[in-house]
Amino acid sequence: MNLARTLALLALTLPPLALGEEEPLPRDTPEAAIVRGSIVFRTYCVLCHGTEGKGDGRAARMYTPKPANLTVSPFNDAYKEMIIRGGGVSVGRSSFMPPWGDELSNEQIKDLVSFLHELRKTGPAAK
């Protein structure tokens, strides 16, 4: 799912505002979390995991094992949060997956996991 499509989806789900109203966008909706998570993904993850999360980013060819294909990840949200926070080593996986716990806020990590749900919808089982 590309960012433009995600933003368009978000815009379609928001209630229309009457002219002159200055209400803030609904910050705590699942859609907003997905949009914020896509920004985190594109900033921190795309180099290794690729734009579609399939583990085929520009840097992927440098690593063995290859970065995970996130469109087929079988792991639950708690596990995903652990690997994002502590890196691959923290869960007995690749040391090439860096720990992001000191870099990302709790909100960014939760938003990223929300976006990973969207990536999962594009995997082979979704077609």
What does this structure look like?
This protein is mostly helical. The chain has helices spanning 3-13, 30-44, 46-49, 77-86, 106-120. The mean pLDDT is 86. The protein has one domain (3-10, 29-126): Cytochrome Bc1 Complex, Chain D, domain 2, CATH 1.10.760. It contains five helices and no strands. α1 packs antiparallel against α2 (30-44) and α2 (30-44) packs across α5. The protein is globular and about 40 Å long. The longest helix is centred in the N-terminal third of the chain and has 15 residues, at 30-44.
Question: What are the salient characteristics of this protein?
Answer:
single chain; 127 residues; mainly alpha; Cytochrome Bc1 Complex, Chain D, domain 2; 5 helices
List the secondary-structure elements in sequence, H or E: HHHHH
Distance N terminus to C terminus?
14 Å
Under the CATH scheme, the architecture is Orthogonal Bundle
Total DSSP helices? 5
Query: Could you give the count of β-strands?
Result: 0
CATH top level label: Mainly Alpha
Uncertain spans: none
Main β-sheet description: none
- Helix proportion: 40-55%
- Mean pLDDT comes to 86
Class of secondary structure makeup = mainly alpha
Strand content: under 5%
Fold-level CATH name: Cytochrome Bc1 Complex, Chain D, domain 2
CA radius of gyration is 16 Å
CATH superfamily: Cytochrome c-like domain
In total, the number of domains comes to: 1
Overall shape? globular
